[in-house]
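Colleagues,

Please find the record for the two-part complex below.
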Amino acid sequence: QKEVEQNSGPLSVPEGAIASLNCTYSDRGSQSFFWYRQYSGKSPELIMFIYSNGDKEDGRFTAQLNKASQYVSLLIRDSQPSDSATYLCAVNALRYGGATNKLIFGTGTLLAVQP
Amino acid sequence: DAGVIQSPRHEVTEMGQEVTLRCKPISGHNSLFWYRQTMMRGLELLIYFNNNVPIDDSGMPEDRFSAKMPNASFSTLKIQPSEPRDSAVYFCASSLVRAEAFFGQGTRLTVV
């Protein structure tokens, strides 16, 4: 079992729709969860982070975390063609009394927003 | 701050040659990560450092790969000897513990 799993897609949505991206993780000790966006040929850039169960909203983006189900999701409202990119889920497990910091990424979901 | 700085941006080398990739993390960050990205395998964690100390190198593919962090502002990833299957984009990232990681622009390595 991979440590962080995502559907590779592509996920195709029409402009203005809600895009829903999902991620599951295997390590119950994980404490920090991140969503990154990566355009083709560029480096990953942070969109959202979430540490607690529930929802966290930032503009058109909402991150959702359910630690019991080991599940993280990202919702993008009013999707725009400029949102077309690969979305990477990342999970951070603190170990050894919080002294370490292992950040693992899923393989990413390719999102295509159709005009 | 200028962000995470990697060099070179592109590297083309012949099989068997030594390759050294360099990274300058964001000042004040105490964690540094080296990742390799390919279409087939995605973004793989090779090694990470906390306070300049290597914590987990289980992702390093084999003994041909080595990484060092002699001080808080500099790290290297070395491949010796290089092979065509090492061709990939190598990213360096830095962070504070438990916080988000910031990525450099990456080094695109091609081994012919």
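The first strand of chain A starts at residue 4 and ends at 5.

Comments are welcome before we finalize the supplementary table.
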